[in-house]
Amino acid sequence: MKNRKNEIIALAVLIILQSALFVFFGFQKAYIHMDEAYSLGLAGYDKVEIQDNEDFYNTWHDGAYYEDYLALQEDELGEFSQVYENQKNDVHPPFYYLLLRLAMTFTVGHFSVWPGVVINIIVYAFITLFTYAIVQRILKGHKHQKQKSAVIAFLASVTMGSLTTAIYIRMYALTSLMILMIAYLHIRLKEEPEKKAKWFALIGVVALIGSLTHYYFLFYLFALFCHQAYRYLRSAEFKTLAFYVLTMAVAGGLSLAIFPYSIQHMFFGYRGEGFIDKLKNVPQFLTNVASYVWTVNEFGFNMFLLVIGIFSAFVFSYRKNHCDRTKPVVMPDEETKDVLKSLYTPTVFYFAIVAVASPWIELRDIAPILVLIFVLVIYYFQR
C-alpha cells in the first residue's frame, strides 16, 4: 500500500512539473501558425474560412473583424452544429474541434491561445500515465522497474517534440493519446484474455474516438488490428477473432454513422488522391523516410540519437569483452517480446505510411507516435 502511494505521489509530481513547463512555454507563445488559426476558426466560426465572407475583399477591416473568426462569441454559444458543418467542408473529423469549442466557452468574446494549450496540457498528463503503464510492462523483471518507467515516461513528455506539440493548437497531442490508449488496451487484452469482453468494449470506444480525431490514427489502428488478428489466427482462436473483428466493425460503422464524410475526405478529397499518387513514387518515399528519421532525431532526441547509438555500441562492445559473462542479464520473455512486437509493428507501419501521405515533412504528422518511438529506442539502447 505504501509503495502504491509513493508511486502515485511520484507520478503526480512529474505531471505537475511537466504541466508547469508547458504553461511556461505557453506564455512564451508569440504567434499562431496558420493551421492553429484554422483550428480556432473551424471550432468557433460559422464558415471554414474568413475569406468566404462577402465583405472580406476590397474592404478595410480592423482587428476585431479577425478576432471574431478566432474567438467564440456570445451569440454562438449554443451553435454546436457549425463545428460539424465546418469539418464536413474541411479535411478532418470533428472530435477535436468539438473539445476545442467547449474549451473556448471560457474565453468568450476574445481571442486566446489558452483553450487549445490547456486541452493539450490535460492530454499530456494522460499521455504520461499511459506511457508509464506501457513502459512498466516492457521493463517487467528489470531492477528499479517503476523508477525507470517513471523517468522514461516523463522524459518522453518533455522532449522538444512533445513541448512543441503541447503548445500547438491542433489535434496531434490528442491523436498521440488515442494511439497510446489503444496500444495499452491491446497489451491488457493479451495479459487478461479472460476479461476480453471488457477490453474489447474499451478498444471499440477508443477506436471510435480515435477515428473521429484524426484519420492518421487509422494507419496505426490498421497495423495493430492485423497484428492482433494474426495472433488469433495463429493460435486458432477463431471465436475470439470473430468478436475482435466485430468490435472493430461496430466501431467503424458507428464512426461512419456519426461522420460519413470521412469516406469523401480519405478517398476522394485532394489528400486521398495525393496519397495514392505518392505511393507510385518510390524515390520520393525513400527521401521522405530519411527526412522523417532526421525529424525524429531532431525533435524526439534533441539531436542526440546518433550520440546515444554510438555510446550504446561502445558500451555493448566493452561489456562483451570485459564484463563478467556469468552475470545474469534480463532478457525479455516471450510475452514481453510479443508486447514489443505489438508496439513497434504498427509504429513502423504508421511511420512508413505517413512518409508517403504527408504533403510536407513536418513534426506534426509524426508527433502522434513520437512518444512510442522514444520509448522503444530507449528500451533497446538501455538493454
What does it look like?
It is a single chain. The protein has 383 residues and is mostly helical. It is built from 19 helices and no strands. It is globular, with a radius of gyration of 22 Å. The model has no long low-confidence stretch (mean pLDDT 88).
Task: Write a brief caption for the model.
This protein is 73% helix and 0% strand.
Described by the principal axes of the CA atoms, the overall outline is globular
What are the segments in which pLDDT stays under 50 over at least 5 consecutive residues? Answer: none
Give the CA-CA distance, first to last residue.
Answer: 30 Å
Structural class: mainly alpha
Give the topology string: H per helix, E per strand. HHHHHHHHHHHHHHHHHHH
| Radius of gyration, in angstroms, nearest whole number | 22 Å
Largest sheet descriptor? none
User: What percent of residues adopt helix (DSSP H or I)?
Assistant: over 70%
Strand content: under 5%
Average residue-wise pLDDT: 88
Question: How many individual β-strands?
Answer: 0
The number of helical elements comes to 19
